[in-house]
């Protein structure tokens, strides 16, 4: 029977070879991504698949270098802060949308108003909650207003894509987007593939790659096979263990940092000695090698992303000192004391493996450790709900805006959604940093906050995870810290 | 007959209603779509606004009444994931699944009859032992593994067929064959067993005694007699394929059908799309059941439909 099946598929294959093998130009590439965009409207969703496409079609007032430095995008220069809540942007001249419409102050005002319009209920309001509105000054100048002092406003404007108001009113933003970016929307065959073509009139010069096809392949093993079979040029989320299998790959420190948040009011973990022991008990270097094949960096004393504004360069790595950890647990009289470690599985790279490895290290200190791997929505409730705080809860925290406000407000601030401490003094400093518009003063505040959290062991930071992409032999590309797939930065050698 | 169909349709309606209700309850117990949908950094106000927008702030019985009213009009609401009517997504993906099933089960049916018949001609012979052991292997191999192996061999190593996707007939070959393996094994075993039974009956012996050729006996007599059990097992395989195999095969091959869409909808907490898919599949299964009964009656008029 197998013989017949084999023979038949061989025959069929020969029959269809001519049908499937099209002409491949040197300037066309295929990218396999894990999830299809839910919509191509750039202002409604918080959706990785949508961004992987729209980051090439649309642009924002601000942009970032591949290393993560904030630079001007559609703005001609960095914004000028007029007062605490008013930021003035001068726009880049000579930019046109793909439909020929000019990019100007009207487009910025319309874009801002559309995304913050409560009617639209945009999921992106998680990033734009402080923006109150926008006003046109003249054709090429616009001011953005915030509801309070907001030092992160320039970073926020890096996240907000600019749309053409005329097209937004009459066109179909959700399935045929029109932006100012280096690539134009070509076609979208739902469930199958999506095509973009280079925009010849792009203000930054026409990009090198002419045509891009996105394929949606949810199963990582199938993405890998497609790369090996020569169907794809770039695949996302390559597992570290396959870096030696693929023709080419590139890794870059990503946005996510894995960390355990400790409950500083819980019976066992309220003792600073116990918390210090938890940080000293983990052999992070061994975990980097065993779990990530080296493609992760040990977090340097904090879970704040190293590329983010506010990162404290002076903090030390936590040592690996199991003897000292055991001694601390004994000093704290916590031998045999119960410690519950809460986590989830399958959401983040090697999440369960990290949780279980750390729980094993912690058990060696003499604590009685139990791991509780929860279903994701139950886990979210443990992380952010109103119930009692877990002794230790795992999270791979992402920082899209690359600003320390994200980690401090979310995890360190006692009122933060995922915070497990009640340090009012630190919360005050975080509130202060959130509205401090002087960069140096703000950096100084974060230095102090992160040092305090480090010394008091409020969290157990683990790794800054790397994003790994598999690539075909001919691809030339250095991936970005902000995880954006920017095709105009890619090229093919042939 | 009409009476029977009407009664079965009524029963089917109850089944679909029951399944839809169960899914309604489960999707609401299985976690909070709001926290799955919004970024972790979303504020409480944003979460509340989103819950209100999709009606999840209402008590569950209010939600259910609304839901039941909408379902009566075939309106399952907008998919949370794709922000367009859930039924539109179902209708878009359904033909892909139908094509895959038609190709896969079609292959299984077409191949299993000759294979089973050849095996049955000499029970215990070489052809029989070969067919039987390979069929058992086919039943034992998980489709997920089988699919990945097929990709490794035919796409990665031999480069004959694409690894995933949809569009040309070449894209259909591997998923359809992977899908066909389990039903093919089951059909072949069933045809073989039924044929062996038939070949030992008095009427076959009589026919052979009076000098009828083996080919004619098979075509005219025995194959007809095994049509009814074959039909009912095909019905079952069709239902299993629709509600199970396609999920695995579509996921492995990135085939944009209902099964893959169901997996993605569940991962994203898109309860409206999950409801629409489960409703559609339940409806199809009920219809397949009725169709199978009616077909059996047409083939073998002795069958009592009550």
Automatic annotation (TrEMBL), chain A:
The keyword Transport applies. One of its GO terms (cellular component) is ATP-binding cassette (ABC) transporter complex. Its main location: periplasm. Pfam families: SBP_bac_5 (PF00496). Keywords: Signal, Transport. Gene3D superfamilies: Dipeptide-binding Protein, Domain 1 (3.90.76.10), Dipeptide-binding Protein, Domain 3 (3.10.105.10), Periplasmic binding protein-like II (3.40.190.10). It comes from the Bacteria. It is found in: Periplasm. One of its GO terms (molecular function) is peptide transmembrane transporter activity. The keyword S-adenosyl-L-methionine does not apply. Residues 1-28 form the signal peptide. GO terms for biological process: peptide transport. Residues 70-405 form the Solute-binding protein family domain. Belongs to the bacterial solute-binding protein 5 family. This is Peptide/nickel transport system substrate-binding protein. It comes from Allosediminivita pacifica.
Automatic annotation (TrEMBL), chain B:
It is a multi-pass membrane protein. Residues 94-296 form the ABC transmembrane type-1 domain. Its main location: membrane. It is found in: Cell membrane. InterPro entries: BPD_transp_1_N (IPR045621), MetI-like (IPR000515), MetI-like_sf (IPR035906). Gene3D superfamilies: MetI-like (1.10.3720.10). One of its GO terms (cellular component) is plasma membrane. Signal peptide: none annotated. This is Peptide/nickel transport system permease protein. It comes from Allosediminivita pacifica.
């Amino acid at each position: 029977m197998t013989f017949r099946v084999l023979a038949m598929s061989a025959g069929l294959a020969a029959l269809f070879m001519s049908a499937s093998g099209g002409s491949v130009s040197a300037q066309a590439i295929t990218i396999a991504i894990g999830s299809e965009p839910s919509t191509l409207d750039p202002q409604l969703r918080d959706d990785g698949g949508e961004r992987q496409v729209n980051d090439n079609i649309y642009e924002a007032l601000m942009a970032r270098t591949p290393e993560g430095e904030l630079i001007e995008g559609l703005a001609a220069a960095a914004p000028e802060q007029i007062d605490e809540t008013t930021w003035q942007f001068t726009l880049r001249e000579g930019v046109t949308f793909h439909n020929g419409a000019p990019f100007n102050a009207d487009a910025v005002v319309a874009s801002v108003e559309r995304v913050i319009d409560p009617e639209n209920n945009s999921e992106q309001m998680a990033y734009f909650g402080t923006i109150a509105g926008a006003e046109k000054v003249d054709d090429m100048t616009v001011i953005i207003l915030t509801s309070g002092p907001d030092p992160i406003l320039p970073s926020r404007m890096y996240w907000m894509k600019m749309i053409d108001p005329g097209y937004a009113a009459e066109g179909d933003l959700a399935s045929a987007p029109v932006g100012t970016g280096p690539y134009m929307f070509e076609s979208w065959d739902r469930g199958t593939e999506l095509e973009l073509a280079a925009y010849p009139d792009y203000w930054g010069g026409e990009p090198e790659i002419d045509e891009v096809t996105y394929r949606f392949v949810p199963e990582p093993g199938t993405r890998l096979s497609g790369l090996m079979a020569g169907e794809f040029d770039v695949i996302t989320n390559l597992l570290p263990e396959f870096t030696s299998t693929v023709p080419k790959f590139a890794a870059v420190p990503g946005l996510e940092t894995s960390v355990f948040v400790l409950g500083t009011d819980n019976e066992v973990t309220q003792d600073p000695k116990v918390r210090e022991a938890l940080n000293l008990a983990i052999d992070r270097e061994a975990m980097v090698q065993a779990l990530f094949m080296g493609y992760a960096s040990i977090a340097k004393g904090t879970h704040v992303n190293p590329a983010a504004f506010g990162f404290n360069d002076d903090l030390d790595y936590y040592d690996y000192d199991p003897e000292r950890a055991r001694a601390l647990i004994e000093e704290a009289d916590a031998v045999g004391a119960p410690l519950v470690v809460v986590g989830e599985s399958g959401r983040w790279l090697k999440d369960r493996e990290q949780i279980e490895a750390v729980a094993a290290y912690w058990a060696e200190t003499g604590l009685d450790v139990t791991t509780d791997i929860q279903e994701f929505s139950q886990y979210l409730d443990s992380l952010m709900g109103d119930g009692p705080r877990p002794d230790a809860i795992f999270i791979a925290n992402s920082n899209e805006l690359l600003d320390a406000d994200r980690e401090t407000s979310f995890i360190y601030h006692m009122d933060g959604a995922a915070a497990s401490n009640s340090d009012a003094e630190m919360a005050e400093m975080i509130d202060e940093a959130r509205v401090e518009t002087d960069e140096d003063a703000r950096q100084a505040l974060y230095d102090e906050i992160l040092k305090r959290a480090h010394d008091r062991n409020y969290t157990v930071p683990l790794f800054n995870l790397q994003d790994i992409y598999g690539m075909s032999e001919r691809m030339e590309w250095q991936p970005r810290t902000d995880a954006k797939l920017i095709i105009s930065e890619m090229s093919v050698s042939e | 007959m009409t009476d029977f169909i009407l009664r079965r349709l009524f029963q089917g309606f109850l089944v679909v209603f029951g399944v839809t209700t169960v899914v309604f309850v489960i999707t609401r117990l299985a976690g909070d779509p709001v926290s799955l949908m919004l970024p972790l950094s979303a504020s409480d106000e944003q979460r509340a606004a989103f819950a209100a927008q999709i009606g999840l702030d209402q008590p569950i019985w209010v939600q259910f009444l609304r839901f039941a009213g909408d379902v009566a009009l075939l309106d399952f609401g907008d998919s949370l994931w794709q922000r367009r009517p859930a039924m539109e997504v179902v209708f878009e993906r359904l033909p892909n699944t139908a094509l895959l099933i038609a190709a896969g089960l079609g292959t299984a049916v077409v191949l299993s009859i000759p294979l089973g018949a050849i095996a049955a001609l000499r029970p215990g012979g070489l052809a029989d032992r070969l067919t039987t052991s390979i069929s058992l292997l086919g039943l034992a191999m998980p489709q997920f593994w089988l699919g990945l192996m097929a990709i490794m061999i035919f796409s990665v190593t031999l480069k004959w067929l694409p690894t995933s996707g949809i569009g040309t007939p070449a894209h259909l070959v591997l998923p359809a064959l992977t899908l066909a393996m389990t039903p093919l094994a089951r059909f072949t075993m069933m045809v073989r067993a039924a044929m062996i039974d038939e070949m030992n009956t008095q009427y076959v012996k009589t026919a052979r005694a009076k000098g009828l050729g083996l080919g004619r006996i098979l075509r005219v007599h025995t194959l007809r007699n095994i049509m009814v059990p074959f039909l009912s097992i095909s019905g079952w395989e069709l239902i299993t394929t629709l509600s199970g195999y396609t999920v695995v095969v579509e996921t492995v091959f990135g085939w944009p059908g209902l099964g893959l869409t169901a997996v993605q909808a569940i991962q994203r907490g898109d309860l409206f799309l999950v409801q629409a898919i489960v409703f559609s599949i339940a409806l199809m299964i009920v219809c397949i059941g009725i169709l199978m009964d009616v077909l059996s009656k047409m083939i073998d008029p002795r069958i009592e439909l009550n």
